[in-house]
Design goal:
Two copies of one chain form a homodimer.
Chain A lengths: L3 E6 L3 E2 L5 E2 L5 H13 L2 E7 L3 H15 L9 H4 L2 E4 L2 H12 L4 E4 L12 H10 L4 E6 L6 H4 L4 E2 L14 H13 L4
Parallel strand pairs in A: 1-4, 1-7, 4-5, 6-7, 6-8
Antiparallel strand pairs in A: 2-3
Helix pairs in contact in A: 1-7, 5-7
Chain lengths: 186, 186
Amino acid sequence: MGNLYIALVHYPCRDRHDKIVTTMITPIDITDIARSACTYDVAQFFVVTPLSSQQVIAQKLIDFWLKAEPDVAYRRPALHRVRVVDRLETSFQSVLEREGVAPLLVGTDARELPGPRISYEKLRELIETDDRPVYLLFGTGWGLALEVLDRVDYLLPPIWGPTEYNHLSVRAAVAIILDRLRGRRS
Amino acid sequence: MGNLYIALVHYPCRDRHDKIVTTMITPIDITDIARSACTYDVAQFFVVTPLSSQQVIAQKLIDFWLKAEPDVAYRRPALHRVRVVDRLETSFQSVLEREGVAPLLVGTDARELPGPRISYEKLRELIETDDRPVYLLFGTGWGLALEVLDRVDYLLPPIWGPTEYNHLSVRAAVAIILDRLRGRRS
């Protein structure tokens, strides 16, 4: 069983015109995804933003919940897993140092993209049977920049229900993907 | 294939001391869950609150997105599925009138509760093979009041990952449950 890492990437992302942008921190992304990460035993959840003012906001939010009232103490173990970093490279280095081996890098996107695909079932099996850590990347805005997706080892297919609508929030997409990869099956 | 309905219930819910309370509308619940509902072809998403001031807030939010800029028009079909009602009974009546038959009522809770259980696989199969509509109830605060859970036909088990932590946001829980019941499998 390899450790699982996730990143919520605010740069480099695409906007609706396919331009490369830095997106803003959305506070509820951090708390929701931290809670999902804790549920599915994600070793570390990286929040990636190059803007120091945004890093300050994210860190303030994390510190708030880490010191929160006992009534909402259930949030502490979740927020403990979050780390704010300036860029993806910093998070790769951090995983590499912790694990002693480069993680398998897996990209996600709401669009059907060309590239090396891996199914949810196959990745689930790989996490269960292989010791190599897996690092899942999630974009914000209109998705990860192609320069990031070009670097991944695998791409997970988009999430579909019975319809052709696939405009899930990133909070919902992360929850669903973690459940597909690590949900307890009875 | 029966139609699927969901409700986000703000009354009657439990607080952390197991007292019955009315919880406040959380705007992001409505947009996130509407987007998940649209992805997984939920026929109607009921937001249940007895407080008229809260109904006004919820409806304003829905109307805002229904009239939103073309750039975020992808939210319209999602928000079209949301209906604000004063109490659960009103939503039951609405489903009954639309379907001509009472829906199978299914409760959810983060705790392991006694009662008539149904597995995700079994309910998925039932939705696919049976014409009877299914109505899933989600609580807010610390969960649905027992007087609601006592009325359901079935209870879905709590969502678990590999850990003992189960403090998902309701937004994440709805997304995961809809994916387990209606996610496209390839």
